[in-house]
Amino acid sequence: MPRPAARPSSASSSASSSSPDPPSSPPPTLAAETPAPPASPDAPRPAPGPRTPLHTSVSLPHFSPPRVVFSYDAKLLDEVLRAQLLHERCVGLDIEWRPTFISGAPQHRVALVQVCSPRVCVLVPVRHVPLRKLPSLVALLEQPTTWKVGCGVREDARKLHRDLGVVCAPVLELGDSATRLQGEGSVRFPGLPEDEAVRPGIKGMALACGVQLSKPKSLSRSNWERRPLTQQQQIYASQDAYVGLWLSVCLHRLATGGSVDFREWLAEQAARESASQTAKVAEREQRLKEWGVGGSATPGCFAPHLDARACIREIA
């Protein structure tokens, strides 16, 4: 979703800019400063035919991915992260790793970390650049004043902790927030009919906001440990991080019309998601107590040898 500040590797970019958020924390400005290059066949495009956006009173931000910095030079990456991202109040976050094609095999370690502001998206090949040489990346991921947003970002944060020992927080899972806000009647997505539920993945949410993404499996399931990454891989990876940031601004505008401080809104959504997750855990624990942990044959369980906790994982 690559053209570095110093052209560190084969990369392409389209420049966009936004000044740092003032203390009042408005949502990031996502407007292009210079024309984007001609779109590739895989570039995001407006949703087709029956998905024509409905008329609403809310104006969504222009979809304009920023320039991309990709390099294997740790010093360059750290300087860009420190100078252009550490001050941000919200960044889009995504990660990639080499896929496993054997059923039941463990996942490979994180290969690429993508962090995006309205002005720049930095692709960090952590499989090839030691984390100890990237203090600004660790600081950004762990910085409590910088929100990390995206679709699947909660699981990404867990994998970053498992693989790299980084405590990535705070994070907001946009798919859960979108589903809940639509269910409450708090938002109406301009790219969907009123009676159609939003799909919580990045592609479904982008479509709900009027942008159709191309996510071919030939890229999503490609070798993210490759050195160097292809230009197509760089575009795909940077797009995912940017879309997370763009969607957070879209959701904020749809839910509040821009009348609520952006960071306060992010914190409120995260708190509500946390409460929802806590309620789900409590419900599952209650079911465990009712069934009895360690029982051999549990109602609703298809495999009699599984214990109650495993059964709940199956049906949850």
UniProtKB/TrEMBL annotation:
One of its GO terms (molecular function) is metal ion binding. SUPFAM superfamilies: Ribonuclease H-like (SSF53098). The keyword Nucleus applies. Coiled coil: none annotated. Keywords: Exonuclease, Hydrolase, Magnesium, Metal-binding, Nuclease, Nucleus. Residues 1-19 have a biased composition (Low complexity). Its main location: nucleus. One of its GO terms (cellular component) is nucleus. Residues 20-51 have a biased composition (Pro residues). It is found in: Nucleus. GO terms for biological process: nucleobase-containing compound metabolic process. The keyword Flavoprotein does not apply. Residues 68-256 form the 3'-5' exonuclease domain. Gene3D superfamilies: Ribonuclease H-like superfamily/Ribonuclease H. Residues 1-59 are annotated as: Disordered. This is 3'-5' exonuclease. It comes from Prymnesium parvum.
